[in-house]
Amino acid sequence: MSEIEKLSFEEAMRELEATVGKLETGEATLEESIALYERGAALRAHCEKRLREAEERVEKITLSANGQPEAVKPAEGL
């Protein structure tokens, strides 16, 4: 498991926001900018994956006859 995969959604978003901020300042060298961009792309992909997983889990919630949550079925692969 990579370092990024270990991050929670919130941690990854904070780091992504900081990375974008560094890129926006324009103070990084070309090589630093490339490295920041690559890390930012990986963080974005991780956040998208976490959101998809959360959406799948919500979709798996089953409701009882009175409309109350009854059980949660984990999405496949989680």
From TrEMBL:
User: Sorted alphabetically, which SUPFAM superfamilies does this protein's record hold?
Assistant: XseB-like
| Localisation per UniProt entry | Cytoplasm
Q: Which reaction does it catalyse?
A: Exonucleolytic cleavage in either 5'- to 3'- or 3'- to 5'-direction to yield nucleoside 5'-phosphates
Q: Which UniProt keywords apply?
A: Cytoplasm, Exonuclease, Hydrolase, Nuclease
Q: What Pfam families does the record point to?
A: Exonuc_VII_S
Top-level taxon of the source organism: Bacteria
Instruction: Classify the main location.
Output: cytoplasm
Q: Which PANTHER family match?
A: EXODEOXYRIBONUCLEASE 7 SMALL SUBUNIT
Q: Which NCBIfam families match?
A: PRK00977.1-3, PRK00977.1-4, xseB
Please describe the quaternary structure of this protein. Answer: Heterooligomer composed of large and small subunits.
Purpose: Bidirectionally degrades single-stranded DNA into large acid-insoluble oligonucleotides, which are then degraded further into small acid-soluble oligonucleotides.
Q: What is this protein called?
A: Exodeoxyribonuclease 7 small subunit
Gene, per the UniProt record? xseB
